Amino acid sequence: MKGLRTRELRVVLWTAIILLTASASVLAANEGTCSNASLQGTYAFTESGNIVGIGPVAVGGAFEADGQGNLVTSDTVSLNGEISEEHLNFTYEVKSDCSGKASSAPGQEPAHFNFVLIRDGAEAMGIHTDSGTTLLLSAKKLSGKGNGGDSDQKP
């Protein structure tokens, strides 16, 4: 019985080492390969979380990124159960390590978030960085290069 547990522990340990090594290889393969051009095309996205003083927030929609640091969103928002639609403009900057920052355009309600691009820009994950806001972002590319498919349909 003791020998079986030791063997199981070794299998689990080696599996963890292999997964960590593979993850490090993927990150190393992406290192130094991203720029604003890595975020380009149409993406479907969701956000969820809370805003202090408002309550639960959920957002679903699409954005179009131009690969030059500008994006436009079209989405539906639920703020504590009240539904509305919005169209916003953002600027963004993607660093060579595939992390980035985005900010709403001047004249709009301030919104800022940090994100990371995954799979050559086919996906993005992020978090809003405004005080009192806890919103997580998940986005998947729908069209163009790096989407993992051959569809060029837009939402």
| Order of secondary-structure elements | HEEEEEEEE
Distance between the termini: 57 Å
Helix content: 10-25%
Mind telling me the C-alpha Rg? 19 Å
Strand content: over 45%
Question: What's the number of structural domains?
Answer: 2
Give the helix/strand layout.
Blueprint: H1 2-30, E1 40-51, E2 55-66, E3 70-79, E4 82-94, E5 99-104, E6 112-118, E7 123-128, E8 133-141
Antiparallel strand pairs: 1-2, 1-8, 2-3, 3-4, 4-5, 5-6, 6-7, 7-8
List the defining traits of the structure above:
155 residues; alpha+beta; Lipocalin; 8-stranded antiparallel barrel; 1 helix; 19% helix; disordered C terminus
What does this entry look like structurally?
The chain has one helix at 2-30; strands spanning 40-51, 55-66, 70-79, 82-94, 99-104, 112-118, 123-128, 133-141. It is an alpha+beta fold and 155 residues long. It has 2 domains: 1-30; 36-141, Quinohemoprotein amine dehydrogenase alpha subunit, domain 2 (Lipocalin, Beta Barrel), CATH 2.40.128.120. It is 19% helix and 48% strand.
